Amino acid sequence: MPPRKPTSANEITRLAAQMRVADPNVDNGAFSSLTTDDAMAWIMALGHINEIDPRMKTAANPQKQREIAIENLRRGLWDVQRFEYPGLIRGRTGKKPHPEIRAGGMGRQKLDGYKDAQRMASYVLTHFNLLAFTQPQMMEGLPMNPPKGRAGNWIGVKKIMGHAALDITAEGGLETPFVVYYHKDIMLIMEILDVKRVSWPEPGPKLLEQLKEAQESKFGARPGAPLVPMMQTPKIPLVVVRYSYMEGRPKDGAEFVLHLESRLREILPSRLSDDDVRVELEKHLTSGEEMPEEHIRMFARLLSHNADLVDKEWADDQQSHWNISKEASKETRISFFVPCLRPRFEVVEEIETGKKVTPHAQCGNCQKHAKTMCGSCFGVSYCSPDCAKAQWPTHKLVCKISKKITSDPSALPKDTLYIPARAYIHWVLDFGFASEQECVKMGGPPVDEPPRNQYGGERFICRALLANAGKGQWDPHQGKVVYYDKGLGTAFLHDRRRSVMVRLGPQEPAKARVHGVEIPFHEAGYRQFAQVMREKGMQGQLLYVYVRRVGDCIEVDLKDIPNQQGIMWE
């Protein structure tokens, strides 16, 4: 087959003229162009968010509504991309600069797709999907086939980021220093400037044991087995890019395209002619990955949002050290992207209520700012040892109230259920965390240790789910249905922040002993709870209840049930 004839300089000029780099500050790829409805839909898509805070309903005018929606969206977007990277984000330049960003570091050098391939591969966690998508999303195949509509756009954006992360760490090194995504006359080009692995805090001894136990219970690993890669501390890929959002076919071409040609020249063999380089440029510009228009536009808006966060001095420094012309730099912006998880539940609560989550920190004795907690029940805070000592005669009556469940259950108040707050196994369920470690780290307290009370003496709402109540199992030896749990099932309760997650039922004490933990069971209170659930719960299985922290237990109010209308969270 004869070699392909190089494209002429005139033809390259004509192709370049078909594209225009739209101004990212004013075009519909800019974050600032979002409407209120777009912002609200995006917030919902971030995960586990049902509505935006009440201020939306009382806003004086549509402009104020939009400001509230954008404010909440920015909060959610920052949280799903949370990381510490000194020097990059505006307002953090006072910190010690990252050695690979500032002068003398690799970030100041041009990345060679061949020479630096190993370095770049080591910087990026290629198992992107394990961090970006939840297990149910993976099982349903949503990352490969995002659903249509606004709900699927965020999944589509994460898909693009996943593909980009894989493209820049492809086996054999970078083919080009940029990636292209397009739909008809819309094109998004990202020039890769640098790639980092942003570390989460390394696990301490206690967390390491939690991870190993979760690995054994979740994946059936043998006791003492080393952590498998997906259970190790994830390294979050942070990709620094120069991007252009292209739209339309005006008369003049794009200076940025000429810059990309010069970048290609740097990594291609020196024996290639200028025409050969132009052929390569044409090939990569026209063979990018086609994505739905909505996905590309949302991703461009995410990049625009992140570009607003980048320190201007740092961005100017990046522009000036990559041999890019002033004309081309005007067509581009410096930004970044990272794999996105769902927002933390504290942030979800802030978005839905309009109030910043501030864990209770008042002294249980004098109401001053507390500094420590009771080391036995973690249910009450104190400002000093003197206050802890002064309140002990009163606090000791409830500090270990779980002991009364076994020793003197009749002394407990009526119309209440007492649940020991401490867990005996790790909850590694799908609570919006895409990685197992993330769930273990943020989804509950260590085994056999009560969580820290975030509400003081105030009551709060928990979501209660009763599973398998009244369902028995056929026993072939007895020839009948046997109710091993006395027909009462198993209950799961957790608050909106996931600071409390408990499970209880007739079978749970025996299961806890297998783990070496004693969990008392308040049988009389649980029977009344099951009855209330059947009478007032949704399909007899789901009910939101008032609870408060009493010592090392959660006290569930079985008489005063909140109005269920309008409460919807998982």
TrEMBL record:
Domain MYND-type intervals: 363-399
Gene Ontology terms, MF aspect: zinc ion binding
Sorted UniProt keywords: Metal-binding, Zinc, Zinc-finger
SUPFAM superfamilies xrefs: HIT/MYND zinc finger-like
Domain of life: Eukaryota
One Pfam family named in its UniProt record: zf-MYND
Protein name per the record: Ankyrin repeat and mynd domain-containing protein 2-like
